[in-house]
Amino acid sequence: MIPFLRKPRLLIFVIVLFHIVGYVGFALPATRDLFEAIVPFHLLLMLGIIVVSHHEVDNRFWSFYLIIYFAGYIAEWIGVHTGALFGYYAYGSTLGIKVLNIPLMIGVNWFLLVYSTGVLMHRAGLKNRWLRIVYGALLMVALDILIEPVAIQFDYWHWRFDAIPVYNYVCWFFVSMFMLLVFENFGFKKQCWVGPTLLITQMVFFAALNIYPL
């Protein structure tokens, strides 16, 4: 690994830059289709940044990644095929290749959110693990509230009855709690600000598309 690629400031700069460019690309009708098409590549880039930034990328880290990836994928499969989690919805084309009607990138997205939130809760200095889990889950619900209108507009997914059910947010809270509990049980040492920056930048990105879509 080239040493300068591991510098947190450089990685933070890349995260912020790509979200600024993404905001403009999504907001402008002339470039919207292109930026929808490259969403999966953006998620893979963010995954690469998180991997590079993590201290001690070992089998334990990859085990955590796989658990969250498949837990997220299975949760979404249950939601799409039964409505028992989140409600009745279906994925569009923006998140890329689907298997069993679930985008392969959705597991990556769950990992990015859970990892970034887990690290942020530790950086916030909360001593009680259950407070970290509950506050982290609430933060992830807040992010989903910002994501939902944008996701519908840009063909990430669509709700069957054209309304976002409250049940979706309830499920997001408890699924997020479970995944953050997994994060806590892996006992990663305190990480740098790259993960939290990704989470905060995503919140600003989706808030901006909701409030001021250009």
UniProtKB/TrEMBL annotation:
The keyword Transmembrane applies. The chain crosses the membrane at residues 10-28, 34-52, 64-90, 102-121, 133-154, 166-186, 193-212. It comes from the Bacteria. Keywords: Membrane, Transmembrane, Transmembrane helix. It holds the Pfam family Caroten_synth. This is Carotenoid biosynthesis protein.
